[in-house]
Design goal:
alpha+beta; single chain; 27 helices; five-stranded antiparallel sheet; 10 strands
């Protein structure tokens, strides 16, 4: 196995070193002089002309367009290198010219004949470089020779240059100006060619899009049409004869090209075969996975899967690549045979990698190392199904290449492609039927039920699409679905291996048990609980990068041509225009989809922070909740802005909408906006946090969630109280846990006045010190609050470490205090009864006697009163009121 590893490393090193060597060689050949650069630009111009003439052909194939696009990409890189090399040279010349010819502000005023012309002073409109300084004027001639005293310059003045130095400076200015003009002109030409290259590349991409849409949605007769099969069968003998003649001709040409190289070629082939046999034996030993005594962790499973896929595919791919390199080295291939051999190499690579990946994922005979465990029988079945599918797909593509070479008829090509599609559809149906377990098998794969549901949800609609496309005559579209579904499956396998290995490896590297972790702990003085969040954060970054790369790889086969599908679908919908913004149902659907994707990404990041990173930090639950809620709001805003941007609605257009909404906000939406802003204040001011114990009016409880509009508080009765955020910001709220969790407890007693206050204080202090939940600092205190005729009043003040435990501690204090007071025979004073206030009215007795006399008179019939006057109680009440 070690030899195989060395061989693979050398092979990949050689493959990697070849492009680097070519790059170095190209860098060494980079021209430096202006003439060489102009010659290079001449070749670029000729390439552009040739490419534009090729684009005039309306029958270019996709392969030809790809070749033209590659040429334009190389040409664009070449021209960008030229521009990048000329810009600093031009800047250096400009700086030198400014040094040699200072500005007019620092020079004495030259004579009129030496002033530069307007054409010299005004910069050209075409160039983007800084204006050059004017030519250095010649010094004026003196009319008379000054004396020695006057010719002596002052000490502070600079000695003017002599005549020879002046001539040298002028010559250098002229030379530098000439070089500047030449480089400036070359730079302008390079930029013009670069712009033209980009325009040609855009035209090629447009042609590729149009060709992609035309071929992908090419509709022919139904695959089950009798006329299509009749035409294909009629054309088959002709195509078979042409293919046979082509292969015989290419074989004869290949044989003739081997003249003089047969011995060397035979030696290379024998060497490949001799190296292939031990490599296959070693690869089989590696794939047996003899990991005795090792626990199959997820990271080890991923490592074993990646190694198995690499070893299984590396040997055949290396052998095929070596044989192809030998053919190219001996010049045995011509232009017509190269595409066919390229298909053969792709087939070998596809079959080898799919077989290795299938064995890596399902791991026959090694149930503990399976990434997906569906049972021994099903795992072996899926390895065979994937291998057969890769072989069938490769054979179909190879036959299609031969038919394209011999110019077979369209019905025969459609039938060949359709047969390959139906084979893939049959294998897909076989696999879907195999993952429908019942009874014992269903219990056996219970843990993998999520994979089975996902496979059914994807597989059955895909099968319906493939069969429907074949029936409707879109065989090319059905083949497109199969090819790219296979590619996405390969990308998913690579993503599984890379994410599991990289994320797990980073977390393990930053753990306290690893070498990196021990080095950081010992060198930087970090603690293990500080090191773990770093590993989790880095693993999250690596996972995010891997998912982004996987998304790009999954979309790579589509290229820019996939946009044509959306363009064709969008063109089928109507649209309407509001101002300068065009809105259609398809655009709205795309905006909603984009909004959901961005929102899902933000929520995924938020969930990862909540479950993985933040719990490992020392942040309290309130701050963690604030970070999570803020990220959620930011995700919603980012998703909304992205969706609106896809509709063409920018921030400047939203300002108009905000101005229109300001009226509504001032009236109907005022309370909503007030609560929203109050929620943001609560999140960032953190006066009230999630988990705090708050008291609002007569209600109290724990803050469970701070939402956009309101805050949820769970009371001690397990009821949820919804409070608007504005009430919490503007109202009075008592927060027991704002500063710390220390709380004070008051226990009040009122013993009879005959007790000894010192004895009461000693008992209450002893009760407080006997409780484990009571803090020693601050020390418990007993307050003598009052002396009344019926009772003395005492209060015990003590502190608990956690205010949430104050109710239990208070209860324990009451129990213990009652016991100690009972043992000391100290009784509480009876509760004072409310005093009755008796109204003292003057001469109330006389009024009562008069009332009695009146009643006696009425009873004896002496006095007859009205109905209102027969009520003695009323009379007494009136008398009292009068008094």
């Amino acid at each position: 196995m070690r030899r195989l590893t060395i061989f693979l490393v050398l092979f990949f090193a050689a493959v990697t070193a070849a492009p680097l060597a070519g790059t170095v060689a190209r860098a060494d050949e980079a021209p430096t002089s202006v003439d060489q650069i102009n010659a290079r630009l001449d070749r670029a111009h000729a390439t552009l002309d040739e490419t534009q003439k090729s684009l005039e052909d309306t029958h270019l194939t996709d392969g030809a367009l790809h070749q033209l696009r590659d040429r334009m990409d190389l040409l664009r890189q070449d021209l960008e290198g030229v521009v990048d090399s000329l810009v600093p040279r031009l800047s250096a010349l400009e700086a030198r010219l400014k040094e040699l010819a200072p500005t007019e502000a620092k020079q004495p005023e030259p004579p009129a004949q030496a002033l530069p012309t307007p054409a010299q002073t005004q910069p050209s409109a075409e160039t983007k470089t800084a204006p050059l300084p004017p030519a250095r004027p010649a010094p004026p001639k003196a009319e008379s020779k000054p004396d020695a005293a006057s010719a002596q310059p002052p000490p502070s003045a600079k000695q003017p240059p002599s005549g020879s130095a002046e001539a040298s400076i002028d010559a250098e200015i002229a030379e530098q100006r000439k070089a500047h003009d030449a480089i400036d002109a070359t730079l302008k030409r390079a930029r013009a060619l670069l712009l033209e290259t980009r325009q040609v590349a855009i035209a090629i991409v447009a042609r590729q899009r149009a060709l992609f849409a035309k071929t992908l949605f090419l509709r022919t007769s139904s695959l089950f049409s009798v006329d299509l099969w009749r035409a294909a069968i009629a054309d088959a003998p002709t195509a078979f004869g042409a293919a046979k003649s082509f292969l015989a001709d290419r074989a004869a040409n290949f044989t003739s090209r081997t003249e003089g190289h047969r011995a060397k070629l035979t030696a290379v082939v024998v060497a490949i075969l001799l190296a292939l046999l031990p490599a296959l034996v070693l690869s089989r030993r590696v794939m047996r996975r003899n990991h005795e005594g090792k626990t199959p962790t997820p990271m080890r499973r991923a490592a074993a899967a990646g190694w198995t896929a690499l070893v299984a595919s590396a040997v055949p791919i290396t052998a095929a690549a070596t044989l192809g390199a030998a053919f190219e080295a001996f010049d045995l291939l011509d232009a017509t045979l190269e595409p066919l051999l390229r298909r053969v190499f792709e087939a070998v690579a596809r079959v080898a990698f799919v077989y290795g990946a299938a064995r890596a994922v399902f791991a026959p005979s090694h149930p503990e190392w399976r990434a997906i465990d569906l049972g021994e029988r099903r795992d072996r079945l899926f390895v065979r199904l994937f291998s057969i599918g890769a072989i069938a797909l490769s054979a179909t593509l190879l036959v299609e290449q031969i038919e394209e070479t011999v110019q077979a008829s369209l019905p025969l090509v459609i039938v060949t492609r359709g047969v390959g599609v139906m084979i893939q559809a049959g294998l897909l149906l076989w696999g879907l039927m195999a993952i429908a377990p019942e009874g014992e098998e269903q219990r056996e794969i219970g843990e993998e039920r999520g994979w089975l549901i996902a496979a059914r949800l994807i597989g059955f609609p895909m099968l319906v699409i493939i069969l429907g496309a074949c029936v409707a005559g879109y065989v090319t579209f059905a083949n497109f679905v199969i090819l790219h579904a296979s590619w996405i499956a390969i990308v998913a396998f690579i993503l599984y291996v890379v994410v599991t290995l990289s994320a797990g490896g980073v977390e393990h590297a930053f753990s306290a048990e690893s070498l990196v972790g021990r080095t950081l702990i010992g060198g930087l003085g970090l603690k293990p609980d500080q090191l773990t969040p770093v590993g989790v954060l880095l693993s999250g970054i690596v996972t995010l990068v891997a998912w982004g790369a996987a998304a790009l790889l999954a979309a790579a086969p589509f290229g820019l041509s996939s946009n044509d599908i959306l363009a064709d679908l969008w063109s089928s919908f109507f649209s309407f225009k509001i101002g300068d913004v065009t809105i259609s149902p398809s655009a709205a659907l795309a905006a909603i989809t984009l909004f959901l994707l961005v929102l899902a990404a933000a929520q995924g990041l938020r969930r990862w922070l909540d479950t993985r990173l933040l719990p490992l930090t020392r942040l309290d639950s309130g701050l963690r909740s604030s970070i999570s809620a803020t990220l959620g709001y930011a995700g919603v805003i980012a998703a909304a802005m992205t969706a609106l941007s896809s509709l063409g609605i920018g921030v400047e257009k939203l300002a108009i909408v905000a101005g229109a909404l300001s009226v509504g906000i001032g009236f109907g939406l005022q309370s909503i906006v007030n609560n929203f802003v109050s929620g943001l204040i609560l999140l960032w001011e953190r006066a009230i946090r999630v988990g705090d114990w708050v008291v609002i009016g007569d209600e109290q409880g724990y803050v469970r969630r701070i939402n956009v509009r309101s805050t949820e508080i769970e009371t001690f009765d397990r009821a949820t109280m919804v409070v608007p955020n504005s009430n919490l910001v503007t109202g009075v709220v008592k927060n027991w846990l704002r500063g710390d969790r220390v709380g004070r407890i008051k226990v009040a007693i009122s013993p009879h006045p005959g007790v000894d206050p010192e004895q009461i204080r000693d008992i209450m202090i002893a009760v407080a010190r006997a409780q484990e939940g009571v803090l020693r600092i601050p020390a418990p205190q007993v307050m003598f609050l009052g002396m009344e005729a019926t009772a003395f009043k005492f209060e015990l003040w003590c502190y608990v470490e956690d205010v949430e435990k104050s109710a239990r501690v208070r209860s324990d204090l009451h129990f213990d205090l009652h016991r100690r007071l009972s043992e000391a025979r100290i009784k509480m004073a009876p509760a004072a009864e409310p005093q009755k206030t008796i109204l003292q009215l003057p001469e109330l007795d006389k009024l009562a006697a008069a009332a009695a006399a009146s009643a006696l008179a009425i009873e004896s019939g002496i006095v007859r009163l009205s109905e209102d006057e027969t009520d003695p109680e009323r009379r007494v009440a009136e008398a009292r009121e009068d008094a």
